[in-house]
Structures are given as structure tokens and as C-alpha cells.
Amino acid sequence: MKEMTHLLTRNHLKLETIKDILTVGQYSPDAISEDAAKIAVEDSVQYQVGKKTLEKWKNSGYVWGVIAYILQGGDIDIETFRALVHSPKYAPTILENFKAIPIDIIEELLLSHNSEIALAAARWCEGKTIPEETIKRWQSLDCLASRIAAIYATIGKKLPADRPQLLRDSEREWAFKIMNDPVGADAVFKSFKQFPYPCSYVLEIWYNNSDSDCKYAGPLLMKIAAARSGNVALIKKGLASYNWKTQQEAAKAFVGKNVRLNTILEYSCSDKFSKRLAAMYASAGRKDVPDRWITEGFTAAKDIATAARFAAHRSRFQPYRTVEIRGEVFKKCLNGVIVVARIPDDAEIRGRSYDGQYRSNKAEIVGIIGDFYGDAIGISTYDKKTKYRVGDKIIVHDFDFSVDTFAKGFHFFLTKEEAEAYKC
Q1: SS3 state at 286
Q2: Residues 309, 280: Cα–Cα separation, whole Å
């Protein structure tokens, strides 16, 4: 039981903090920010909350308390539930965290005029038990959210005997519509990663039929090819695309692929920028690629230099650090909380001295200055989801190896004063 409590509280608000936030909110809503209430409600899902507390939340009249009650599986009248789940303000929280929503309500939401609600309902369908006849009906509707929901509903499951609607030649127009929507692209990407049968020919057909009106299709197809074994021929096509984003994703897709050493050499000597970029990504982690091929890219144009630094990291070169850290670093979080961290010696570090901000791919949390409504925790001001507690070891797997100060990574300042002065 103690181990479970530790797991629950390490990266989430403590139950007592959640109770305090919702209690204060009930009597003085203006004292609790919307962000804090939302975080408390979402984190309440992690706990088995007592019946007395749930009854208080249900009858409080404080909307965030009612939502917390719903997320605990509390029984509430359908009119109240419908009103909340149709609200642009509260629907995303409920749809992201509540598992047992009747399919008829989901179908209402898929047809909502509010695209955020409709697409959140589509995303809800991932991992849910939805009848095959319902999925087939969604596939045939003239509705983007319904079509995307049908894809999410099949992810991780045995596909119907007849291949999915999205793969049929007659559905090419819908396929591109879906791929050009960020939520639809996520569904397609996840779906193709888990297909139990080879579908390289489908990717090939889609790529050959994509056009300038489908500017996101090419990059997405390159990402799918990158996540699957093989597909080198298709990636080479993408590298020759007229669309720069497709070329970039094609270059990245060469990471971990079985590319001949002669091809890497040919690409590295090419007069085409996209091929030189691909050479760097194809070299990542390869023991047969001479170190100098990678190091020569360090002083190249921005994208190639970034790819070279990525290749060096994957090939276990010494980390590239734009500043050497002495002692602790500091990060500002919600409610003015300051997170104190140490950056390991093997961490990559980016950033420039002129604005004082830096970022790394690794960090260890060693202290919390201040509190979030009584809880010693730091919560990211950026996504309001990432949480830090003392003892956490941070590894940013999708770290951006460019010198861009504001790209992905664990962001920090070198002094506590700089962090406190930073306006989020």
C-alpha cells in the first residue's frame, strides 16, 4: 500500500492538496485559478477518493467538484452530464479522463459544431470497446470527426476481415482530409504503426497520389515509414519531394534503417541539401561510419548541424554543451514555485547567454522552493501537465538537438534570481 501511495504522489498532486483546492474553490472560486482546478481534477483520477468526499463534491455546486465526482465514476443525472460534456470549457477534461461515456453521447459530440469537442470525442475512442457496426457506420458518414473516431477505434485491435475503409481506393479523398488534420494524422500514424499485415503498398499509393493540396500527407507518410521496418524505397521518394517538410521527415526517417555505407557517402557529397541532411541521420548510431563524416557536419548549415549533433549523440560522442554548469540550476513553475535541479555531466545542453535560458535532455530534481497549494511540487507553466518532485530523474527522449533556446528539453536558468524574474 505504501508503494502504491508513493507511485501515485510522486508525479501527481497529493490527495489532500486536491481536496484543499476543491474545497477552497467551492466557497471562494476566485481564489483558485482555472489551471489549478483543472490540474486538481485531472489528478484526482489517480486516487480512490472516500465516499464522504465524493458526496461533498457532487453536492457542492462547484463545477470542478462535480467534474471530479464524475471522473471517479459517480452517478449523476444525464442532463447535467450532457451539459458539461458539451461545454467547450469542460468537455476536453472529461473526454480525456473519463472512460465510461455512453456511445450515443459520443456520437452527439462527434457531430458537434465545435471542432475541439468533436475531435476530443474522436480521440476518446482509442482503446474503447466499440461495436464493429458502429465503426463501419462512422466510416461512411460525411463527417471528419466520425471518420477519425473510426480509425482510433481500431487501434490495437484485430482489424475486420475486409480491410479498413480508409485503405480503399475510393476513399483517397477522405484519407488525405484526415491526414491533413493534426488529430487525424495522430490516428493514422498510430494505426499504421500497429497494422498486423504489410501495408507498404498502401503508403506507396498514397504518396504517389498526394498533391499540393495535401501538404501534410507527405510528411506524415514519411513519419509512418520511419516507424516501420523497411520502406527505404518510399523514404528515398520523399527525399526527392518538392515539399521541404516532406524532405526533412524523409531525412529523419533514415535513422536506424539499413542503408548501405556507399549510399551514405554518396549523400554526404551531394549538392542537394536534403541528401546531405539524410546522410547525417543515416549515420546515427552506425559503427561503420567514420567519425569525421559526422564531425564535418557540425559546422554546416543549421539543419545539417542539428542532424550531425543528433548523430553524434546516438553514436556516443561527448555531449555538446553551450555552457558548462557549475552547481544547481533553477526552473520557474506555476504559482511561482522554483524547481532546483542538477544537470548530469553526460547531458546535452543548448541555449545562449544573452537571454539566460538553457535546456538539457537530462536533469535530476534536488529541491522545490515554494509550494503549489501546500504541495511541494513543480508544475510546468508550458503544458500544465509535467510535474516535478524531489528525486525525479528527467530524460527528454524527443530532445531537439538544435541550438534553438525554446525548443524541446528541460528548460532552466543558471541562477534563482533569473528564474524568479522570468515572466511565464
Answers
A1: coil
A2: 9
DSSP letter string over 291-345? HHHHHGGGGS-HHHHHHHHHHHHHTTPPPPBSS---S-EEEE-GGG-EEEEE--T
**Overall pTM > 0.85:** yes
Domain shared by 343 and 409, yes or no: yes
Torsions phi, psi of 18, nearest 5?
-60, -45
Boundaries of domain holding 44:
2-100
Strand, coil or helix: 410: strand
Per residue in 314-349, pLDDT tens? Answer: 999 999 999 999 899 999 999 999 999 999 999 999
Buried b (16+ CB within 10 A) or exposed e, 227-247: ebeebbebbbbbbebebeebb
Split into its structural domains, the chain has a count of 3
Considering the domain architecture, whether residues 265 and 290 belong to the same structural domain is answered as yes
The H-or-E segment that residue 368 falls in is: strand 362-369
Number of neighbours of residue 320 by Cβ within 10 angstroms? 16
Radius of gyration, alpha carbons of the chain: 25
On whether the CB atoms of residues 188 and 171 are closer than 8 A, the answer is no
Q: Do 309 and 339 sit in the same domain of this protein? A: no
100, 122, 144: which is the final residue of a domain? Answer: 100
